[in-house]
Amino acid sequence: MTAMEGLPVDLRAFHNEVEGHLLAAAAREEARTAAARFAAGFDRLPEAERAEVARRFAAEHLALSRASWQRTARRAEELRAEYEAVHRRLRAWLLAGVLLGVALLVAVDLVVLVWA
Q1: Using CA atoms, how far apart are residues 67 and 45, in angstroms rounded to an integer?
Q2: Residue whose C-alpha is closest to residue 36's, from 56, 52, 54
Q3: 6: DSSP letter
Q4: What 3-state DSSP class applies to 7?
Q5: Which residues fall within 8 angstroms of residue 31, CB to CB, at 6 or more apart?
Q6: What is the per-residue pLDDT across 4-42, written as a single tens digit (0 to 9) for each?
Q7: 75: confidence class by pLDDT, cuts 50, 70, 90
Q8: What are the b/e assignments for 44-71, b being 16+ CB within 10 Å?
Q9: What angle, 0 to 180 degrees and rounded to 10, lies between the N-to-C axes of helices 47-115 and 11-40?
């Protein structure tokens, strides 16, 4: 329950949101660290220019990370749809098999009762 209006909290959504913020913060820190390492190699540049190189490098690093995450998320959705379709077909086949088995069992029982 939240303190505001006593509304229930969807813990899964909350967990996903917190995890997303933590992953984004980690990606930003990773980009800043990589940018600082890269910019350190330009020791002949004035500090302001080196900071600009680091800023641009970090921005590009984040853009590449974001694109990679989006591709991964799209592929995960595609796989989920494929697996759900396969699961539905398997469930349908299983149900058909069970119904066929029950029908055969009932038919055999009727034949045995009629001939007995």
Answers
A1: 30
A2: 54
A3: T
A4: coil
A5: 57, 58, 59, 61, 62, 65
A6: 455 456 888 888 888 989 999 999 999 999 999 999 999
A7: very high
A8: eeeeeebeebbeebbeebbeebeeeeee
A9: 140
Name the H helices within the chain.
11-40, 47-115
Instruction: Indicate the burial class of 14 (C-beta count within 10 angstroms; 0-12, 13-18, 19 or more).
Output: exposed
Q: What is the C-alpha separation between 20 and 26, in angstroms, rounded? A: 10
Q: How many CA atoms lie within 13 A of 67 on its CB side?
A: 6
Assign 44 to helix, strand or coil: coil
Q: Residues, the chain, total? A: 116
Question: Quick check: 2 pLDDT over 60?
Answer: no
Residues 6+ away with beta carbon under 8 Å from 35: 53, 54, 55, 57, 58, 61
